[in-house]
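Extended Data, panel c. Modelled sequence:
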Amino acid sequence: MVIVQGLLPIFVASSLIIVPVAQATDCQLKQYASLDLAVLRNGFLVVPVTIQGSPVAMILNTANAFSSVTETAADSLALQLKSLPSGAKVRSGMRQIDKLAIAKEFSMGGVRFKSAKFMVIPNDTFDPHQGVVPLVGILGMDVLGHFDVELDASNRKMNLFSQDHCPGHTVYWSNSYDSVPIRLGELGELYFPMELDGKKIETTLATGNQTTSLSTDVTRKLYNFDSHSPDIENETDAGGRRTASYRAMKLSGEGIQIINTHILLIDRPPNDFCSLGSRSGAAAYEGCLGAHPLQLGLNVLTKLHLYIATKEKVLYFTPAEAPK
């Protein structure tokens, strides 16, 4: 996740100009693209895209405000590099980000952009050799925010629609659905409040995470436990790193109730600009942009079929296998 201190101008996400313009004249959905997603061995959902004529792939992460490419990808794709303003403090994990990569051409599923800008992230962020085509970066909401997004993670499908339609005319795959209002952060990321064991917490749809995660500064304040508490289940991942999880938590919201959700506990890095506060009655971060405490990972999102109405600012959803 990209963490930003202070107000970074939105020039990072600008100049994404869609060539095919949708002008809806009725309540029907107008579809721009239908994309088949791949799943990597580590569980990431991957979107096929084309950058300056080269077919490549990007990890889908709707929790990220900005899209990004690795240093090697920016070089191999011959992208123009530009330094961030000296006063901007942008960090991915513990790494400082100081460059943008500019692509003259970018497309996905037949939707073409005249230009696109990407944060330049370190090469070791992920393994680029996991699929048929090179994995070059992460696709975030600066690109996806131009559309309504339907995500059927369990069936590896993402559809892009025009934002111009009548309110509520979105869920075509089922006669019944639930919805929750979503909010847009100052960087353009989407979030909404959910209840975890009865406490409201700002939440994002973290399609780039296998497991739903929660920061331990929140668990200490709201639930009186952290990753070192005696009732925490400890695990070791494939790389030999110790992780801590807490299973006995109830996740609920508008039409959602998931018992014993597997929650990965995350210790925030020191001096990451973020301090825990409250916004609209939900636990939230202050002093930084783009960060929210609870991130719904694929262990939850694969149980849901989602429609993100970005202009209407509503998240519609059904169970993943909702009957027609």
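The first strand starts at residue 2 and ends at 5. This feature is highlighted in the accompanying rendering.
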